[in-house]
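ok posting inputs for the zinc ion job
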Amino acid sequence: MSNKDKLIIFDTTMRDGEQSPGASMTKDEKIRIAKKLEKMRVDVMEAGFPASSPGDFEAVKAVAEAVKESSVCGLARARKEDIDRAGEALKNAVAPRIHTFIATSPIHMKMKLMMTPDEVVEQAVWAVKHALKYTDDVEFSPEDAGRSDKDFLCRVIEAVIAVGAKTVNIPDTVGYNLPWQFGNLIKELREGVPNSDKAIFSVHCHNDLGLASANSISAVLNGARQVECTINGLGERAGNASLEEIVMAVRTRQDMFECDTNIDTTQIVPCSRLVSGITGFVVQPNKAIVGANAFAHEAGIHQDGVLKNRETYEIMRAEDVGWIENRMVLGKHSGRNAFKSRLKELGIDFASETELNEAFIRFKDLADKKHEIFDEDLQALVTDTGADSSNEYVSFVSLFSKSETGEQPFAKVTMVFDGEEVSAESTGSGPVDAVYKAIEKVVSSGAELKLYSVSNITSGTDSQGDVSVRLEKGGAIVNGHGSDTDIVTASAKAYINALNKIFVRRQRRHPQKESDV
Ligand code: KIV
Ligand code: ZN
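and the output
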């Protein structure tokens, strides 16, 4: 890098991103995302909130053990039990970071914490000191800083830096700020806190008004040197600032910035796809950088211009962010070792030989139908049933479906449910409706289908269809997805994938809801 400052990229896809309703990730899924983020060279990855559930504790621990090149961070409220859990989960990390937070806005202190400002300062200082017993890399966040009193923020920040917080993160928790205002806040805090030069100022912006990236960029122009962001802008409610937008804005407009990131931008699109595949959150086609249309030119005048000189209508090169042609990686004749080592390169390990063998059978099956197998197909193959099959209450066995113009569609589905093979049949308004009604005859989940979408995994009519569904039951939302060259089968797999998540839904506490305390 040049002699510019470094802009630290802190990815929170596996923590704030996971707080999106339905986006929860298993341990194995987090490891796969973590490996990809490491390959992309993110500086810090927040792997989860270890005190939220035993499952998340294990996931953060596993990520901490798998990642060598990036810092791994765990979130903790400013309380002993959270910090101890985070410290324990991160103990084997090469570079562990504890991120502790407490709210500082009048409304949060009074209504949620029921604490006085003095008590909040005292608790924040205590929390940073306690976290320092586990690692010297401690980050502190005054939650809802975007609606906090500036002088009070200066007081808290000075106090936590004085006891050793190395990073001070300013969250616009509810996405309330406007870009010029948020930039000013960062400037005033840096100027108003006497020891501000002893810590890195970071920002964490939510997208409730669609301003998360703009607010983060404005903060960087005013001296912030860490941005917290997520792949595809995933996150609580309307999401967080999206990593790809921040990184590419800074890279593309180097004429405007005194800093740059260390990110390998060619990993952006593959990482976006991985996260979308795992969470089932489809990327909108017109999403900047990673949307399918981000580099597509429809208007003739644009196409003509781009053919004559790319820069007439393109400010970035598609290949620089990882939009490359699908590469055939494996085929019908590829053996078990080639399959295993390609998956390893993708960060996918199997818990046992049995799981590897099962996945290899699915691979051979797919290779029979579709001769060229791409990385995306492999990702889908394991995401589908998951390398983590221990949590399967229902599994798909086979499907017969029939639809003919003028006739009512019919489906017969065979599944293993509660250890027994069972079949059910139904008619429906369409083949997918018939399949879902047949499945429900067996499982009686009572879940409501909130979203159904299908997209192609690679190009060509022989591509696998990737189906995402969202189910809601009793306020809990889960996403499921499945892929197959037959989209009706993919639909059945997606529904069953979501049902399994409903059945095993981990009771997870939310870091920012004090009623969970
Ligand atoms: O949005 C927020 O305030 C957070 C904090 C925990 C940093 O996610
Ligand atoms: Zn947040």
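notes: Residues 9 and 27 are 23 Å apart (CA to CA). Residues 16, 171, 173, 204, 206, 236 surround zinc ion (ligand 2) (CB under 6 Å).
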